Amino acid sequence: MNEGMHTDVESCVRAVQSKDARFDGWFFTAVVTTRIYCRPSCPAVPPRPANMRFLPSAAACQQAGFRACKRCRPDTSPGSPEWNQRADLVARAMRLIADGVVDREGVPGLAARLGYSTRQIERQLLAELGAGPLALARAQRAQTARLLIETTSLSMADIAFAAGFASVRTFNDTVREVFALAPTDLRARAPRSPQGGTTGALTLRLPFRAPLNPDNLFGHLAATAVPGVEEWRDGAYRRTLRLPYGHGIVALSPRPDHIACRLTLSDLRDLTVGTSRCRRMLDLDADPVAVDDQLRTDPVLAPLVDKAPGRRVPRTVDEAEFAVRAVLGQQVSTAAARTHAGRLVTAHGEPVTDPEGGLTHLFPEPAALASADPESLAMPRSRRTTFTTLVRSLADGDLRLGPDSDWPETRAALLSLPGFGPWTVDVIAMRALGDPDAFLPTDLGVRRAARELGLPSTPAALTARAAAWRPWRAYAVQYLWATDSHPVNFLPA
Question: Which of 61, 360, 483, 490 could serve as 66's disulfide partner, Cβ 3.0–4.6 Å?
Answer without folding.
Answer: 61
